[in-house]
Amino acid sequence: MVAIERWCRVTLLDSAGDPMASWEMGGARPPDLAAVDEVARLALVACRLRGRLALSDVSDGMRELLVLAGLSVEMDGQAELREEPLAIEEREEEAHPGDLPA
After folding, report:
1. Whole-Å CA distances, 63 to 11, 21, 31, 37
2. 33 vs 31: CA distance, rounded Å
3. 11-32 pLDDT per residue, tens
4. Which residues contact 86 (CB under 8 A, 6 or more apart)?
């Protein structure tokens, strides 16, 4: 049996910042540029819906690929490198009753 590596948790937020959907991204291997492409596409969809994308529990490998791909990720309300973020932000995940341990 192959272990699944968790790359990040993705949350689609509406224009008010309320979560509309949330899911985990991961795979049997470390993240690659296809995973980054998926995040970028999801961010564009979120923009079209007048919302944004929030990433939490981002693995080091995924974070490095996002930076390498030139995606500006907003962290704590500040855009990195004074660039306009692509409606992607990194958040600390909140614990909810019934969540399984990471």
Report:
1. 16, 21, 10, 13
2. 7
3. 999 999 999 999 999 999 999 9
4. 40, 43, 44, 47, 71, 72
Cα–Cα distance between 51 and 14 in angstroms, integer?
A: 4
Can you tell me the distance from the alpha carbon of 38 to that of 71, in angstroms, rounded to the nearest whole number?
12
CA distance 54 to 65: 16
Q: Tokens 């990195």 — which residue?
A: 80
Q: Which two tokens stand for residue 8?
A: 């990040």
Q: Hey, what are 48's tokens?
A: 């079209």
Whole-model pTM: value is: 0.72
Residue among 79, 93, 73 at smallest CA distance from 24: 93
Angle between the 60-68 and 33-48 helix axes, to the nearest 10 degrees?
70
Cα–Cα distance for residue pair 11/17, rounded to 1 Å: 10
